Amino acid sequence: MGLQKYKIYINGKPVLLISPEQLAEIGAQPDKNNFVSHYSGKKKMIIQYLDLLDKNKDIEQVVLMSKDLDKLWKDFQSCFKVLEAAGAFVQNEDGKLLVFYRRGSWDMPKGKIDPGETPEQAAIREVQEETGLINLKIEKFLMPTWHTYEQYDKRILKKTWWYLMTTCDQKVTPQTEEDIEEIRWVNATEWIKEEIHVYSSIRDVIHEALK
Question: Are residues 48 and 37 in contact, defined by beta-carbon separation less than 8 angstroms?
């Protein structure tokens, strides 16, 4: 099992928080597209790098290194209001993946965790609400993803818990109030190779599920 590292997406671009010995593993070399730096321990440095990634269109990735990765991660989280959501990679009996198109991108069922819910309960509820599927079984936890956005001038860091689910249902009923325009079952291995707009974090989940 590899060392812990964190990947957070900002406008589709990754920020990687790693220990120094992981730099060779990820293969990121400092250049105009990769900003690589050691973390000084000052939280204002994190905000500066986030702004750099947001404003400099040449930079595709920011890599921050620290021997104390736990402190770096805690400092990073403290720059945001942290929210949690849950979602699922849903397969039918033919092994096909459920995806839908909304707000200009292909996506999978997900949504916020309500008070008192576990991530597993939230994931099942969101799939049921967004797709109309009823008979769902969680097979395993896949991975968490992290992404940021701004809401009411506040920086938000959202963690999404992702699960592999199976269903014997075939008929889907898209939740139109969630702006779902199209919903379909696809061969995930072939579909993810197509030139389609899919959030980077969703691609990560699909690749993890296909391992």
Answer: no
Which secondary-structure segment (H or E) carries 186? strand 180-186
- The region, left, alpha or beta by phi > 0 then psi within -120 to 50, assigned to residue 205 is alpha
Of 123, 163, 113, 125, nearest to 143 by C-alpha is: 163
What is the reported pTM?
0.91
Tens of pLDDT, residue by residue over 118-158, are 999 999 999 999 999 999 999 999 999 999 988 888 999 99
Say if CB 67 and CB 144 are below 8 A apart.
Answer: no
Separation CA 86–CA 104 (nearest Å): 21
- 113 and 190 in contact (C-beta within 8 Å)? no
Residue type, 37: S
Question: What count of residues does the chain have?
Answer: 211
For 5-44, give the DSSP string. Answer: -EEEEETTEEEEEE-GGGHHHHT---SSSEEEEE--S-HH
For 197, the 3-state DSSP assignment is coil
Phi, psi of 205 (to 5 degrees): -65, -45
Strands (E), 24-135: 34-38, 61-65, 81-91, 97-102, 105-107, 110-112
